[in-house]
Write a structure and sequence with these properties.
Layout: E1 11-12, E2 18-19, H1 28-35, H2 41-46, H3 50-60, H4 65-78, H5 82-88, H6 91-98, H7 104-118, H8 127-134, H9 141-150, H10 162-173
Amino acid sequence: MTRGGIGPVPRRDAAGSPQPFGARLRPRAAIRGAVGAAPLLQERFGLRDPWRVAAVCCLLNRARGRRADPVLRELFRRWPSASRFRRDAERADVLALVRPLGFHRSRTRALFATARAASDGRALRRPSRVARLAGCDGVGPYAVASMRAFCLGDLTATTADRVLAARLEWLRGCGGER
């Protein structure tokens, strides 16, 4: 919308003050309050298993949680562990399952890479195992912070993701009890 041909009309916040274009209208405190108490998908599906947390984070990359939720339910219903995924999953089945989220080829490649790294038969709850998964395709800083927080119990993990940061802040305030 323009004002008499001189450019766009500035947005206004709740107090009526003009806001620059691209500025957030909701303060961060409002976002933190809305998300803090609700468990994230990494917590719901992760069960302290780094492969599951990495798989959730892989499917959440550039996808909304409500869209990824049914895909995650079906993924973990068919293949509840990394070893079962590695043994039983066919590439075509996984491609078809993750196709609604987009980027299905790269997501499938990442799921198989993390399953290979995770299913060597040793316990994965040690920091060295989380570090090994961190080197896989599709596992970035968000997934590493999620694995550190929800698998190792390290609530001091830092992240640039505001929702995960809000959840970790809320958990620290509660003493880590979910």
